[in-house]
Design a protein that fits this description.
Layout (H helix, E strand, L loop, with lengths): L1 E3 L4 E6 L2 H7 L3 E7 L3 E3 L4 E4 L4 E5 L6 E6 L4 E5 L13 E3 L15 E3 L5
Parallel strand pairs: 2-9, 9-10
Antiparallel strand pairs: 1-4, 2-3, 3-8, 5-6, 6-7, 7-8
Length: 116
């Protein structure tokens, strides 16, 4: 379980191969400043790369968090938020890595940077 006391920002969908493989599709998240995020209960962290780690629930395996090692904020899975969020995606990232089995047709800004 987690609680956010501050403002969530930059709702985005990540289409990189890592996010697609760990979530089964693209991953939608919102950025929360670390001081505004309280994690309650057990979360396990996996070092996903030299730049970041991801947090998941050890009971059900849900991928909940993405944290850049040098970042002051954490990506929180939008699908894990209880109730309405009042948010809308602002961008799609790593669209150059997206799967060939779907199209992005929602007119939200796309950033084609490639996953390094």
């Amino acid at each position: 379980m987690f609680e956010v006391k501050g403002t969530a920002r930059d709702p985005a969908a990540c289409h990189c191969s890592q996010c697609r493989k760990q979530s089964g599709h693209y991953w939608a998240a919102v950025q929360v400043m670390d001081d505004d995020l309280t994690i309650k209960g057990d979360v396990r962290w996996y070092r996903a790369s030299d730049a970041a780690k991801r947090g998941f629930c050890p009971t059900c395996g849900s991928f909940l968090f993405w944290k850049g090692h040098a970042d002051p904020d954490t990506g929180v899975a939008l699908g894990a938020v209880d109730g309405p969020t009042g948010l809308h995606l602002e961008r799609h990232i790593f669209t150059a890595d997206k799967g060939d089995y779907y199209d992005i047709t929602d007119n939200v800004r796309q950033e084609e940077q490639e996953n390094g």
